[in-house]
Every structure is written in structure tokens, then in C-alpha cells.
Design brief:
Three copies of one chain form a homotrimer. Chain A is of the alpha/beta class and 264 residues long. Chain A has a single domain, classed as Ribokinase (UDP-N-acetylmuramoyl-L-alanine:D-glutamate ligase). Chain A is built from eleven helices and eleven strands. In chain A, helix 2 packs across helix 8 and helix 2 packs parallel to helix 10. The radius of gyration of chain A is 17 Å and the shape is globular. The model of chain A has no long low-confidence stretch (mean pLDDT 95). Chains A and C meet through helix 5 and helix 10 of A and helix 2, strand 2 and helix 10 of C.
Chain lengths: 264, 264, 264
């Protein structure tokens, strides 16, 4: 499927309930991708807003109790209306509030996908992992098994991103080797990646295929940006938007480094 | 009037109660223009803060009930002290909360100006319009009549921006044809435009003239930025600040594309 | 001490309770410096989060009552665990809420350092000063005496930044002449500077020396960025991250313009 063409043609509305650190950056990333962002967090409007959306992103990066309630309400309405929900469990494992909130959302909302770093996803799956603030230091040992288990349990696509990204739908596991170390010099590139996943799923039939394409596309955009701005994080940040805006499906097909491990 | 010179000389303080998506970007735009931004939203301080300001921006981009109360309190105090108030009804029409809040503010606060996209302004005026999140899809048919009516009713200047901007004070209507499609690839350029309008009104006698100049100036800055960075939204975003910072009144006079329809 | 090397080696976690205007920018600055940022404000998690941090930044830039409570709770826990706390009293003097909050925090939390503009620091020390929103217009007359008094009273390092930065630990006063006027064309450079101070103190034994190095380093980064982008605030903003990322201890030693007034 030509995902980027499809996103640019359909312009899906991506409703974000997200943290104030990256609200601007993820909105801009959404626009560069060709989708439409809307950021709305108030319990008084999230249910109505999500009805008009083609995907809902729940990102717990700067969480408080009020926001958890809004996420649960928006998630329930999204489920009723068939709007796919993507969870970004930012900082799960760093505090009890975040661990509990991520698990509460995963339990109460039917998720289409989860995108976190390997530590966050491990925590969500019930394993131990090391996290400093929102930075993964160490994850569960066999991350491929962990995400497969979690995907099976929640019947959704699970993405654990890092130097190599891993994706599973509970049956298959994919490894995506695109990306660049400069992505870790800019805050919120994980959150941006979640937005890319949500925008792909918003127009997709096959969510596993969509998530794999999303991670490859975002990784390739990172490679393109780094080619313009290696060792300069400020410049890289700007070039990342340029690269996403300019990226084509043909480039993704040509440059993706994806290995799919099919279930025997 | 040489508005940009005047703003840079007087450095008006622009108090924003605004959304967390564009708080940084509008603060930077205010600085580039030569004015001083302050972002303060707590009901405990907005009345005191606005007393020291030369304009107040009320932007409902990420709204909740607490913020509406703060906006009403700040607006009332601004009215008492003669501080001009500019409303940006972001997403009016997208949810009942936003539609109601925009109307409640317009009813209870004496506004100097309103700046929204054509759909938001149409909704505020009581017409139907199509909006996806915060993106105008379709507005009331005769936007010039709509803004004239609304301006007359509220005794303020109404700006509906888009490919062509329309401004009215209830008697005249102006069309401003400056701008560039790249402005729609960066989130918050509408909110930035509202800040430019507020900064102009902060130093102006004639608010209609000030708003027209503001829209022309911001549109020209967009054209200048696009000349440096067409098809590159990340670069365009940065060049937009550069362009606003460098813009002169002489350039605005030379490059503005404004048509004023005087009342017969 | 080779502070930048040390920060890049130890990667201290800097927990920020900060304003939504600069949350993204200070997180990115932290990363460029080589430290790890985490932004967390909820009373339900700040105490747990700060236990894992090597420094805590309390920045009152967009304050409300809820946030003050979270700051006091996080500060108390940081004190118990020996995590150094750095206060940025943004806008103290602009409203009673901010003045009171800054003083309440200074009274109840044992601070390692304070970083504000001269007006904010003067207000915090109990003097009169002129402030427009968050912009210092005039400070207490003898800023060196003021910060020395305040440093002595609170037993912490006090930094009053401006065209010349002043630092005192109650015994010595340092003047740091690095920096560039372009720093005032971008919002949040003061907040970024506070983050640099906190990151230095996180790895330091001698907090006065660390603060002086931090101000020199950030000022030099501003000079480097301006060399790439003078008169272009958008470009300067991006180059500032590049400059901080590339800065070395050797450059700071070679380019710092610091005068230390030792107590006779």
C-alpha cells in the first residue's frame, strides 16, 4: 500500500491527548506527513472531538489524574466509533503513576497499537526494565518475545523502538533497522514516531504492515535529515520536518531495511 | 502609521492566555515583532498581569473550563482598564465546548478584534461551517457579509484569514492577498497572526487600519520566508521568525496587496 | 573541573517542573548539553520522579496553585535525598502570585542555586525592581550586593543574568561577560540557562565554580550561535542548540570572560 500517498490524499484527522513538551512538535510532524493534527485534552470535549478523528493518540508524557480520565473517556468513545487508538506509554516504569496509567489505559481501552521504547513496552508487558526519566536504559531481555506476548494479549500491534525497532502483531515480528543516532539528540522523536504510526493506521487495513511502514518511513526521514545535519541537533530537528514532508512511498520502498520473521 | 517602528519603539507587553501547542512559537513571534510576550493563565494572577499589558490575547486552542474562567476574568479587567482584547476562537465549531466558550467570551468581554479562520469566524457569527479539528474545510458562503455583520454586532474588528484574508470593522471590508501556502504547513501560524494583530492594535488609534496592516505584514513575512525555504516546512518555520524580525514598514507599504471596499 | 566532559559522561537526569512555554526548548537544551531531561509536574509523581534525578529545576514561568504544591513537595523530597534544587523565579515581581510563590519556595526548600534576571532576583531578595511581564526593566541598584546578601541568607548560589551576569555564593562575587544580545530575541533563553546551571551543579562539588562555568559556557554558546546567525532569531535559535552540543571545556576555558571578586 502507498501509505504516504494515501495519508496525503485522505488527510486523516489525528486527535492527540498528549504532553505539553512535544505538543507543537508532534502537530508539525503530523502536518508534514500530510495528516491534520488536533490537540484537545479537556474531559468536556475529548469525546466529541474524537468522533471526528481517524485516529486517537494517547501519550502520557506529562501526566496527571485529570488527563488519565480524559484519556479513558476519549478511548472509550473511540472504541465505540471504531476510531483506532494508539498508546505511547512515555515514562512507564519511571513512576508508579505512569506505570499504573499505562496499564489502566491498556486494560480499559481496546488499542490498535502501542509505540514506546523497549523499556516502556517491557514495563507495560509486566517485565522489569531500567528507565531514567523517559530514557530507556535497559529492557526485558528478549524484546521480541515480550512484544509478541503483549500484542497477543491485547490483540494489537506493539512497537518497541530503539537502535533497531521491533514490531509484532502477536503472530509476526518485524525488525526495522532504519533510523539514525541523531534522533536521540532531539526530544520527542519517539512521540513523533507514535504520530507517524497513528497516521498510517488511520488509513490502513493491515495494521501490522502499516506500523512497519511507519517505522521505516520515520527512520528513513531521520537518515535523510542526518545527511543534511549530522552532529547539529538544532539543524537536524528542522531537517527532520523537511525530510518527512518530502518523503515518498517510492523512497521508503527503496530504502527500508525491514526483516519480517514469519511464524513457522 | 508606521506600525512596526511604533511596536519596536514602544515594546508593548502582550499578555497571552493561550494554548500549550503554540505558547513558545507565539512568544517568539512577539519578540521578533519587537513587542514583549507574557504567558500567564492562572486565575490567581491574570487580572493583575493584564493591568500591565498593552493588549490581551485570548486563544482557546487547548481549552478547559478553568481556562475559560481565567479568560473571562482577565477580559473583564482588561475592559475596565482599557486594554484591548483580541480573541482567537481556535476550533470553534469543532466541539460544543469551543463554540460555547468563544460565544461566551464574545458576549461577556468587549473585544477589540477577532482573528480566526473563515470557518471559526462563521461559527462565531452563528452560521454553519465545516471544520476538521482546527482546520477550516468550508465557511459561510459570503464571508465578507458575515464578518461585517459580526463586526457591527460586537463593535470590533473581525479578521477571517485564509488564502485571502478578509477584515471588517462593520463599515468597511478589506481584502488582503498577501501570504503563502507554506504558512499552512506549520502549526500555529494562525495563532501567530493573532499575536501580530494584537501587537499592532496595542500601539494603534485606528484598529481597522492596524488589523489590515498586521495581516499584510504577516503575509509578507510568510512570502519572504517562503522565498528562502519553499517546500521545506522546518526551514520555513525558522525563516518566518527571521522574516518578521527583519520586516520594515517600508517593505509592507511596497509589497502589501490590500483592497479596501468602502461603504457606498 | 571539566564540567562538560563530566556531564556527557555521567548523563545526569534533570527533573524539571517548568512552564509549558519552554518545556520543549529546555528539554532539547538539556539533551544538547549531554544530560537527560524529564518533565513531570503532577503532585502524584514528582516525589518519586525526583528521587531518581541528579538535579531538580523549579521554574515558575506559567504558574498556578497546583504547580506550587507540586514544587514544594518535590523540593522537600529532593532535600531529603540530597538532590540539588535550582529555582528560576520567572516573572517574580510581575504578579503577587509569582512573588509569593518564589519566596515561599525559597523559604521552604533548601536551594542549591537561583538563576533569574536582575529584576527577579532583586524582588526575591526583598528589593524593588521593574519588570514588564517576564522582562527585567530595572533591578535593585547594587545587584552585586543584593545577590551576595541573598546567597548568604539562603546559603545558596545566586545568579542574576543580563548583559553582564553576576554570581555569588555569599562570599565571592563573579562577573561573567560572555553572551550576546541575540539571546534576548528568543524566548526561554533564561530558562535554558537555568537548565545549564542545574546540569553543572548535578555533577559538581563546588557549586559556585559550577554556576560560573555554566553561565560562561551558555554565554559562549550564544556567541558561537550569533556568529552563525546574527540578526536572524529563527536561525540563531537553532544554532544555539548546535553550539551547546558542540561546545567543549577547552573552548570555555579559552573564551570565558570571568572576573572573580574575592572577599578581602
Amino acid at each position: 500500500m502507498r501509505y504516504l500517498d494515501e495519508i496525503r490524499k485522505k488527510k486523516p484527522l489525528i486527535h492527540h491527548i498528549t504532553n505539553y513538551v512535544v505538543a507543537n512538535e508532534t502537530a508539525n510532524l503530523t502536518l508534514c506527513l500530510g495528516a491534520l493534527p488536533v490537540m484537545a485534552h479537556a474531559i468536556d470535549e475529548v469525546e466529541e472531538m474524537v468522533e471526528h478523528a481517524q485516529a486517537l493518540v494517547l501519550n502520557i508524557g506529562t501526566l496527571d489524574r485529570t488527563q488519565i480520565d480524559a484519556m479513558l473517556a476519549a478511548g472509550a468513545r473511540a472504541n465505540e466509533r471504531g476510531v483506532p487508538v494508539v498508546l505511547d506509554p512515555v515514562g512507564a516504569g519511571a513512576t508508579q503513576l505512569r506505570t499504573d496509567a499505562a496499564r489502566e489505559i491498556a486494560k480499559n481501552v481496546r488499542l490498535a497499537a502501542i509505540r514506546g521504547n523497549a523499556a516502556e513496552v517491557s514495563i507495560l508487558a509486566g517485565y522489569r526494565a531500567d528507565i531514567a526519566g523517559v530514557e530507556a536504559l535497559g529492557a526485558a531481555e528478549n524484546i521480541e518475545r515480550v512484544i509478541k506476548e503483549l500484542a497477543l494479549k491485547l490483540d494489537c500491534v506493539v512497537c518497541a523502538t530503539g537502535p533497531i525497532d521491533h514490531v509484532s502483531d502477536g503472530r509476526h515480528v518485524a525488525r526495522v533497522a532504519n533510523g539514525h543516532p541523531m534522533l536521540s539528540t532531539v526530544t520527542g522523536t519517539g512521540c513523533m514516531c507514535t504520530t507517524v504510526v497513528a497516521s498510517h493506521i488511520a488509513v490502513a487495513q493491515d495494521r501490522f504492515d502499516a506500523a512497519v511502514h511507519a517505522l521505516a518511513a520515520f527512520g528513513i526521514a531521520g537518515e535523510h535529515a542526518a545527511a543534511e545535519a549530522d552532529r547539529k541537533p538544532g539543524t537536524f530537528h528542522q531537517e527532520l520536518y523537511n525530510a518527512v514532508f518530502a518523503l515518498t512511498d517510492d523512497e521508503v520502498d527503496a530504502e527500508k531495511r525491514v526483516e519480517i520473521l514469519r511464524e513457522e
